[in-house]
Amino acid sequence: QVQLQESGPGLVKPSQTLSLTCTVSGGSITTDDYYWSWFRQPPEKGLEWMGAIAYSGSTYITPSLKSRTSISRDTSKNQFTLQLSSVTPQDTAVYYCARARLLVPDFWGQGTQVTVSS
Question: Residues 65, 11: contact at Cβ < 8 Å?
Answer without folding.
Answer: no
